[in-house]
Design goal:
alpha/beta, 11 helices, binds aspartic acid
């Protein structure tokens, strides 16, 4: 047989094997990579969603934490994973802010991934250690501005939602604080509750239960309207603070080259999971708003990501905050 013919047969057989394994997909557990520490808000969304997606997929979706400051190692891991649908990524707005924040990023959100769909949007809250005396935002701002050299601010590193919210908050009140970076706001929250750091901005998916239990002080929510699960907590806007509104959106991604039939199964399992009553109840309790079904699609995630990159790039450049 000529070498060219042999190569042709090998290519056809490889394509056949790929499509056959795509048809059988999934026949083992799937890893959902979370780019932040366990116990934080992204991890919480992943666990609720992963469990529900496992039902239509007929396999367990295992949450795998790949924590790093700014959440930049998780996407890199998924970019380099085998594109077979057994490794997927859940990430938030950081997919749209890191391309501007980092001079050197080892992945390109717009070219290195297949898109699965948008999940939900979550507002953020300004929360402080329980020992903080201030009873409301006004008192907190007076205290923080007077003590700006000793007040510190926890976040999950440059590129995290908590970093973005902190950047907007500090710029809105025209005061800078020392930043303490963590590999996720799960561990940052432990230190906040323990009084080791003074304040932070974190998603309601993590802060709601601590606010309700009185474990942290809460001074405002970053959405335009109050959150149903925290009806007594005023928005920052209604307290006169403009320019710190931000909603954190989550999306699901797979490595570039994941076969279309596999992506289709992941999309339909995302859509099934988002109809699940337990998922809806849990997201509502945590202040998260699910994207409608027509946004739980690859095209909607791709369009949203591109629009968010374009939206945040000038704001980040103006704030002049970069990492290498
Ligand atoms: N809330 C974190 C952030 O600031 C991430 C996390 O730990 O889930 O992006």
């Amino acid at each position: 047989m000529s070498p060219i013919r042999a190569l042709g047969i090998a290519a056809v057989m490889a394509a056949f094997a790929t499509s056959a394994s795509a048809q059988q997909y999934p026949n083992r557990n799937i890893s959902m990579v979370v780019p932040f520490a366990a116990g934080g808000p992204t991890d919480t969304v992943a666990r609720v969603l992963g469990q529900a997606m496992g039902k239509p997929l007929g396999q367990t979706v295992i949450v795998e934490n790949r924590p790093s400051a700014g959440g930049i190692l998780g996407p890199e891991q998924v970019k380099n994973a085998k594109p077979d649908g057994y490794t997927i990524l859940i990430h938030h707005i950081g997919m749209a802010t890191t391309p501007t924040l980092y001079r050197q990023l080892r992945y390109n959100p717009l070219t290195d991934f297949e898109y699965i769909g948008l999940v939900n949007e979550v507002p953020m809250t300004i929360v402080a250690k329980p020992q903080m005396q201030a009873k409301n935002l006004q008192e907190f701002l007076e205290y923080a501005k007077k003590n700006k050299d000793k007040v510190n601010y926890a976040n999950a590193g440059v590129g995290a939602a908590s970093h973005l919210c902190g950047m907007l908050f500090m710029s809105a009140i025209q005061t800078d604080f020392q930043t303490i970076p963590y590999k996720g706001t799960g561990p940052a929250m432990n230190d906040l509750i323990g009084g080791q750091v003074d304040f932070m901005c974190d998603q309601t998916t993590s802060t709601t239960s601590h606010i309700k239990a009185g474990k942290v002080k809460a001074y405002g929510v970053t959405s335009a309207k109050r959150v149903a699960s925290l009806p007594d907590l005023p928005t920052l806007q209604e307290q006169g603070l403009k320019g710190a509104d931000v909603a954190i959106w989550h999306g699901l991604y797979a490595p570039k080259g994941t076969p279309k039939p596999v992506i289709d199964k992941l999309v339909s399992s995302l859509q099934e999971a988002m109809k699940d009553a337990t998922v809806n109840q849990r997201f509502t309790e945590l202040g998260a708003v699910s994207f409608p079904a027509d946004k739980q699609t690859p095209a909607a995630l791709q369009a949203h990501l591109k629009a968010e990159i374009d939206k945040w790039a000038p704001l980040i450049k103006k704030a002049g905050q970069y990492a290498d």
